[in-house]
Amino acid sequence: MIIEGNAVLVPGANIDTDVLYPGVFLNTHDPEQMKAHLFEGLDPALREELVGDTVLVVGENFGMGSSREHVPHAMKASGIRCVLGESFARIFQRNCVNLGLLVLRAPEAARAAHAGSSIRIDTDAGALTVDGVDHHSHPVPEFMLEMIGAGGLVPWGRKRLET
Predict the structure, then answer these.
(1) Model pTM?
(2) What is the pLDDT of residues 53-111, one digit of tens each?
(3) What digits encode the pLDDT tens for the residues 102-148?
(4) Fewer CB atoms near the end CB (10 Å): N or C, the chain?
(5) Going edge to edge, which strands form the sheet with 102-105?
């Protein structure tokens, strides 16, 4: 799978899902409505940078804290194609995969990116370029690519049960 997009940076480490999507908005269940609240407790101006295909670039331990599925739902609805980071909280990473949003741990590439960087990811080859400079990434396992392509764990499971 090839993913191309422009970088939007979320500065800092240990960013908690509670600031990415504050609890007061958890009664919203439609991802199209959720995107209006993404980054609300961190920096609402980041939403204005989510135009076209976006690769969200994050620091260490991104998505720590409570396991808010609203965050990956809102990210996908906002046009985020991939979250590229130095490292992720385990439950955030799993929620993203379960909901069909690719997360990719590539610390060197994440540190090299700046706002607006052009990013190209070849998930099969483990190839990653930031502004034309090659960086290493591990290939994404085939079943995870299938899951992401299907839209997440539940649609992937349904499809497998049908065959």
Answers:
(1) 0.94
(2) 999 999 999 999 887 899 999 999 999 999 999 999 999 999 999 999 999 999 999 99
(3) 999 999 999 999 999 999 999 988 899 999 999 988 888 999 999 99
(4) C
(5) 102-105, 80-85, 54-58, 2-10, 118-122, 127-130, 133-136
Handedness of CA 47, 52, 55, 57 (dihedral sign): negative
CATH number of the domain encompassing residue 71: 3.20.19.10
3-state secondary structure 135-149: EECCCCCHHHHHHHH
Residue 92 in tokens:
């955030």
What three-state secondary structure class fits 22?
Answer: coil
Name 107's Cβ contacts closer than 8 Å, sequence gap at least 6: 85, 86, 87
What is the 3 state secondary structure string of 96-146?
Answer: HHHCCCEEEECHHHHHHCCCCCEEEEECCCCEEEECCEEEECCCCCHHHHH
Compute and round to an integer the Cα radius of gyration of the chain: 15
Q: Which domain holds residue 122?
A: 2-162
| Structural domain count of the chain | 1
Rounded to the nearest 5°, which phi and psi values hold at 25?
A: -100, 5
Residues 113 and 9: beta-carbon distance below 8 Å: yes
